[in-house]
Design a protein that fits this description.
Strand content: under 5%
Number of domains: 1
Helix content: over 70%
Number of helices: 11
Shape: globular
Mean pLDDT: 78
Radius of gyration: 18 Å
Structural class: mainly alpha
Low-confidence stretches: none
Length: 213
């Protein structure tokens, strides 16, 4: 479910989007943002779409600040649903899944062995890097010995930067024709590439520090 659900969801969206996108684009503000928050956040929370896809959809369908406000609200809702759903699965079930990949298992053991005030920060660092699927990190975090509110808050803060990056990418995809036809200034393309590289470097560096802690 953690891997197959989002993959199937993206395939379904990709297949059906061309037939229904004009209906979606006809929906105005604030109905469209509300629908994205409720529907998009819900399907993301139950692992039918990846979290970055939610951000990309917001960037593609909405303009300006609406895309970032909607994605942040949808992410908050998706994270709450995911963490709540994760409590219904046993630790044994979680460990069976995580043992299928060594990196996942090692990360899980580091999180579980973390104690004290650094544990919430560890949750944020885990969510910051796309080290494992959104659904799996929900399962891991849902069983940690800290309050549900604190788990949700630090999960949300960790997921927010990469969600905003996905919003930016989704917004850029709206103008893919102008990018390919070189209708936009070259500095915009260079800035986008540099921004992606810097953020990717920051995430990887943060994760390595966490892994060696």
């Amino acid at each position: 479910m953690a891997m197959g659900g989002p993959l199937v969801g993206m395939i379904l969206v990709g297949v059906t989007a061309p037939d229904f996108i004009h209906y979606v684009e006809a929906i105005g503000i604030p109905v469209l943002p509300l629908l994205i928050i409720v529907v998009g956040g819900s399907v993301t929370g139950i692992a039918l779409l990846p979290s970055f896809f939610l951000g990309a959809v917001c960037g593609y369908l909405l303009n300006g600040g609406w895309s970032y406000v909607t994605s942040s609200c949808g992410l908050a809702w998706a994270t709450a649903i995911g963490l709540y759903t994760g409590r219904f699965f046993s630790t044994n079930f979680l460990e069976v899944i995580l043992k299928q990949k060594k990196d996942w298992w090692n990360t899980y053991n580091r999180i579980v062995s973390t104690a004290g005030s650094f544990l919430p920060t560890s949750v944020a660092l885990l969510r910051l890097s796309p080290h494992m699927p959104f659904a799996l990190t929900n399962l891991v975090c849902a069983h940690l010995p800290i309050s549900p509110v604190k788990i949700w808050l630090f999960s949300y803060l960790g997921l927010l930067p990469r969600t905003f990056l996905a919003v930016y990418v989704g917004g850029e995809l709206k103008d893919w024709r102008s990018l390919l036809d070189l209708e936009r200034p070259p500095w915009e393309v260079a800035f986008s590439v540099a921004l992606f590289a810097i953020l990717f470097y920051f995430i990887r560096r943060t994760l390595r520090r966490f892994e060696t802690a």
